[in-house]
Amino acid sequence: MPEYTWDVLLPGEDLPRILTTDYLVSEGEEIDIDGSEWLVERVELNERDDDEAANVPAGVVTVIPPRS
Q1: Cα dihedral 60/55/53/12 (nearest 10)
Q2: Residue 49 and residue 41: Cα distance in Å, rounded?
Q3: pLDDT tens-digit map of 5-25
Q4: Short-list 30, 27, 61, 32, CA closest to 44
Q5: What's the CA gap between 37 and 13, in Å, rounded?
Q6: How many C-beta atoms surround the C-beta of residue 40 within 10 A?
């Protein structure tokens, strides 16, 4: 089963949080980061050129607070 590593960009924070999943995160779903729910606003998969990194799926996820 593939493992995906995501850099999650939280509003108001300078550094991303790291999230590892066994599935592709999709826009509109809620994810848990350190015990708080966030709504995925955008997902960008990273394109890598080197062979070693190509075997590790990764991307950047932008989140917003969940809708009430």
Answers
A1: 10
A2: 26
A3: 999 999 999 999 999 999 999
A4: 61
A5: 16
A6: 19
